[in-house]
Amino acid sequence: MKKILLCCSAGMSTSLLVTKMRKVAEERGIEVEIDAVALELFDENLTKYDIFLLGPQVKFKKTDFQKKADPYNKKVEVINMIDYGTMNGAKVLDFALNLIK
Questions:
Q1: CA 75/CA 7 separation, integer angstroms
Q2: pLDDT in tens, 80-92
Q3: Model-level pTM?
Q4: Which residues make Cβ contacts (< 8 Å) with residue 2, sequence separation at least 6?
Q5: Contact between 50 and 100 (Cβ < 8 Å)
Q6: 98, 99, 97: which is closest to 1 by C-alpha?
Q7: How far apart are CA 24 and CA 41, in angstroms?
């Protein structure tokens, strides 16, 4: 099972997106775990997930987080601002799954 973690300032704005992503995954029959947390919880979740997606408002953390993720061969990417703003669960799910492959 693939595991995706979304990170934002407080984990609140990504919660709705997580719900939409889970719904799309369920409709497609994809087994995936998707969660959202505040930035402060990134380090403690580093070994638990396959990919880390940052909300556009915290893209400034990408370089720092990627350095932490590199030893584990994991990617940190920023969610497209339009997909995030429109809460496009399908596009964000596809983006994450393509990064894991």
A1: 13
A2: 999 999 999 999 9
A3: 0.94
A4: 31, 32, 33, 50, 51, 96, 97, 100
A5: yes
A6: 97
A7: 26
